[in-house]
Design brief:
This protein has 324 residues and is an alpha/beta fold. Helices cover 42% and strands 14% of the residues. The strands form 2 sheets. An 8-stranded parallel beta barrel has the order 1-2-3-4-5-6-7-8, surrounded by 6 helices. Strands 9-10 form a two-stranded antiparallel sheet. One of its GO terms (molecular function) is nitronate monooxygenase activity.
Length: 324
């Protein structure tokens, strides 16, 4: 039985039943997850970086379009660490996805090119200053990444960030982080959010292609096991505190910090750190290894088993409508 629609701005913008984006997760998100999410009444996005070539990215977009008729997006890293940014943007515009989520850089060129193709652009922000900047560049919505988010989290709580952005910005605010159940979804919308981007809940799903060990870790560990590390990409990122993470620590060593501050070497060191970190994540995500570097956010506290995506979305909506 289809549950009652949740009326929020994101539902109107994308014409979806529920204002929920299955967040783009590096190495985790795939076409099966997006298709399942759309069929369940939500939407979802995949990082362009999940594909080794731009043609693989094109094939993935076409696969989703041929399977379902609902909206979906692609997450694009728009800073200099993404050497294939221009090619990825060109493919996305040619294939006309519904929206782009930009991360880690200035979205000016992306907004300009996407709007020419009739594509909306939602921009990751962690504070008001950057939110005002992307609004002035023509962004269609803001993804408010708070400190409860997984992956590259912000440093402001959902209870402070969403109301501040709603008060000072005139475009929709989509909250990212801090939603692990339907009650928290309702609280986020009551704070003023126009929709929510939810990621970590969907790692331990039947549709995800990551290893069973990664999925089970999301079941076995909880919010108190999430730590921030700068060793993966140079940018602080949340991971599950496995014995391996405890062993290697979460801070860059003195040489890494020095290289990260050198004006001439900074760009190349960041790119090297990013690629090295991504390789470590990839190895851990798809195989059983003691070198486990698993990205996740505090909302894994709500993950009790490995389930289909439809079950999770149904539960979110059911809890949203319940009287707590």
């Amino acid at each position: 039985m289809t549950q009652e629609r949740i009326n929020a701005e994101l539902s109107q913008i994308l014409n979806i039943r529920y204002p929920i984006i299955i967040a783009p997760m590096f190495l985790v998100s795939n076409t099966k997850m997006i298709i399942a999410g759309i069929k369940a009444g939500a939407t979802g996005a995949i990082p362009a970086m999940n594909y080794r070539t731009t043609e693989e990215l094109r094939t993935a977009i076409q696969e989703v379009k041929s399977a379902v008729d609902g909206p979906f997006g692609i997450n694009l890293i728009v800073n200099k660490s993404n050497f294939t940014y221009k090619e990825q943007l060109a493919i996305i515009c040619e294939e006309k996805v519904d929206y782009i989520i930009t991360s880690l850089g200035s979205p000016g060129e992306t907004i300009k090119e996407a709007h020419k193709a009739g594509i909306k652009v939602f921009c990751d922000v962690t504070n008001l200053k950057y939110a005002k900047k992307v609004e002035s560049l023509g962004a269609d919505a803001i993804i408010a990444v708070n400190k409860e988010a997984g992956g590259h989290a912000g440093n402001i709580s959902i209870k402070d960030l969403v109301p501040e952005l709603k008060k000072n910005c005139s475009i929709p605010v989509i909250s990212a982080g801090g939603v692990g159940n339907g009650y928290e979804l309702k609280e986020a919308l009551e704070l003023g959010a126009d929709g929510c981007s939810v990621g970590s809940l969907f790692i331990a799903t039947e549709e995800a292609d990551v290893s069973e060990e990664y999925k089970q870790a999301c079941v076995d560990y909880g919010e108190n096991d999430i730590v921030m590390t700068s060793k993966l990409s140079g940018t602080p990122c949340t991971v599950i505190k496995t014995p391996y993470v405890e062993k290697i620590g979460t801070k860059q060593n003195w040489l890494e910090r020095l290289l990260n501050k050198n004006r001439k070497l900074k760009k190349w060191f960041k790119a090297f750190t990013f690629m090295r970190g991504m390789k470590s994540l990839q190895k851990a995500a798809f195989s059983a290894t003691y070198k486990t570097l698993w990205c996740a956010g505090p909302s894994i506290e709500n993950v009790k088993s490995i389930r289909p995506i439809k079950d999770i979305i149904d539960q979110l909506v059911r809890e949203y409508h319940e009287e707590k």
